[in-house]
Design goal:
single chain, alpha/beta, TIM Barrel, 8-stranded parallel sheet, two-stranded antiparallel sheet, 12 helices, 10 strands, binds NADP nicotinamide-adenine-dinucleotide phosphate
Length: 336
């Protein structure tokens, strides 16, 4: 008779302990993305944290977001001088290094040259300004943000991106950027760099998601040994300020079904879709649990048939509004 309650309380204690242990495990869960080789011999983590936001509170919390992200296992951070958050990101990086969570060499920091600093002799000074804001001696990857130069007042400038690329090569030679690449370049623009320069870009960072699958540009880059980083990976699954957003949305049944098979959410399925196509997705989140969810995509793999199924959502629809650029001499989006 006396044994009964004590067995129950033992069970209760065990159950409580299990719950506590699971909670503790949840807190320390950290997933690191595997690394891939770039064409210059450097290694790059195959998933990056996106940091662009127009929301003031996101920027204000960026220092803490970087800490949360590093704790969750992120080692690759994507920023740009345009995002005006390099300082907060630098503070977060200093915090995690000081805490002993990582060393500088464990991290891969990408930043970008904005359009108003495209002249050859502006590139290295612009990178030095970014490095000062980030509190770093070098970045792992420096990208030309777009092929189209602008003057400081925002009007178009016709500086040839080949001159800009010479400045990028100089930045690499000086050790200020370990790798150099481009963003928002089409295949003809990349080919022109390859034909006229010493260094082939290591990366092209472009918009890719199920509604904009970019088959031709990705194949072109991969054939040339150029790694593709995929921005706006969730496409129109998340709220965007656009009319008639195309599918898939976050509750898309096709993605829900694929997710059920692997025990994953639709957003994780889409990130895996991008990874399985050989690209490096750059999901942005400032929410701790979504940060963790977005990097927890390295314990499953889609079948070739599932990749084909998801690619059928393609409508060549861009999230990025590029209507202001259409008349620029180096407008990139009129071809792949
Ligand atoms: N090179 C370029 O020209 C260029 C252009 C655009 C973007 N980028 C880079 O790519 C990054 C990502 O692109 P993006 O910011 O446009 O779009 P995104 O990462 O596709 O989407 C971000 C949005 O999705 C939400 N979200 C994140 N994880 C989610 C999840 N698991 N479930 C549901 N919602 C989720 C975020 O909200 P919460 O934060 O609240 O989670 C945010 O509203 C940028 O931050 C930037 O670093 C580069």
């Amino acid at each position: 008779m006396q044994c009964e309650p004590s067995v129950d309380s033992e069970k209760m204690a065990l159950a409580t302990l299990t719950v506590c242990l699971l909670a503790a495990i949840h807190v320390v869960v950290s997933v690191e993305a595997p690394k891939a080789g770039l064409n210059d011999g450097n290694m790059i983590p195959t998933l990056a944290l996106g940091t662009y936001s127009t929301n003031e509170s996101d920027r204000a919390n960026m220092r803490q977001t970087i800490i949360d992200a590093i704790e969750a296992g992120y080692r690759h951070i994507d920023t740009a001088s345009l995002y005006k958050n390099e300082e907060e990101i630098g503070q977060g990086i200093a915090d995690v290094i000081k805490k002993g969570l990582v060393k500088r060499e464990d991290l891969f920091i990408t930043t970008k040259l904005w359009n108003d600093k495209h002249a050859f002799d502006q590139v290295v000074p612009a990178l030095k300004e970014s490095l000062k804001r980030l509190g770093l001696d070098y970045v792992d990857l420096y990208l030309i943000h777009t092929p189209g130069a602008q003057k400081a007042d925002g009007t178009f400038d016709n500086i040839d991106y080949l001159d800009t690329w010479r400045g990028m090569q100089e930045a690499k030679k000086q050790g200020l950027a370990k790798s150099i690449g481009v963003s928002n370049f089409n295949s003809a623009q990349i080919q022109r760099i390859i034909d006229n320069s010493e260094i082939v870009p290591a990366v092209n960072e472009i918009e890719v998601h199920p509604a904009l699958t970019q088959e031709r540009l990705i194949s072109f880059c991969q054939d040339k040994g150029i790694t593709v980083m995929a921005y706006s990976p969730f496409g129109f699954m998340v709220a965007r300020d656009v009319q008639d957003a195309p599918p898939p949305r976050i509750d898309e049944p096709v993605l829900v079904d694929i997710g059920k098979k692997y025990g994953k959410s639709t957003s994780q399925v889409v990130l895996r879709y991008l990874i399985d196509r050989g690209t490096i997705p750059i999901p942005k989140s400032t929410n701790k649990s979504r940060l963790q969810q977005n990097i927890d995509v390295f314990d499953f793999k889609l079948t070739p048939e599932e990749i084909v199924t998801i690619s059928k959502f393609n409508q060549n629809r861009r999230v990025l509004d590029n209507s202001d650029w259409k008349d620029h001499p180096y407008y990139p989006f009129n071809m792949d």
